[in-house]
Design brief:
The protein has 123 residues and is mainly α. The protein has one domain. It is built from six helices and no strands. The protein has helices at residues 3-20, 26-35, 50-66, 70-86, 90-103, 109-120. Helix 4 packs antiparallel against helix 5, helix 4 runs parallel beside helix 6 and helix 5 runs antiparallel to helix 6.
């Protein structure tokens, strides 16, 4: 295959990985976390409306139906968050860390996740 055809083919293969990743700068994170509480650790400790609280309860119930132990379920979500960080998807990583917080707020691994998130931000 000629080189001129290989480059566009390679770009088509790599494009989905670039589109899926959302690496943030600190300034971008600050701006987005004001608009979306899911991007702030522990949801920014903001008040949630009844719909959000119901959604949280449903999520926790669904999660515990699959993994009944709160600590294990929370650890699994933290692991998923770290996987998202490794893939460069910062937004989904924070979503997973916050979901882990919903399931088991006392899980110390969540705070490692939050710390890793902030260390990964572009400064």
């Amino acid at each position: 295959m000629p080189i001129m055809l290989r480059i566009p083919c390679l770009l088509l293969v790599l494009l989905p990985s670039f589109l899926g990743a959302q690496h943030l700068t600190y300034a971008e994170w600050q701006w987005q976390s004001v608009r979306d509480m899911r991007l702030a650790p522990r949801y920014g400790e903001r008040q949630k409306n009844p719909e959000q609280l119901a959604s949280d309860s449903a999520f926790v119930a669904q999660t515990l139906a699959v993994i009944p132990d709160r600590q294990q379920a929370s650890d699994h979500l933290v692991d998923l968050g770290f996987e998202q960080l490794r893939e460069g998807n910062m937004t989904h990583a924070m979503y997973r860390f916050n979901q882990a917080y919903l399931v088991e707020p006392e899980n110390p691994a969540i705070y490692r996740g939050y710390g890793a998130f902030f260390m990964a931000l572009d400064r």
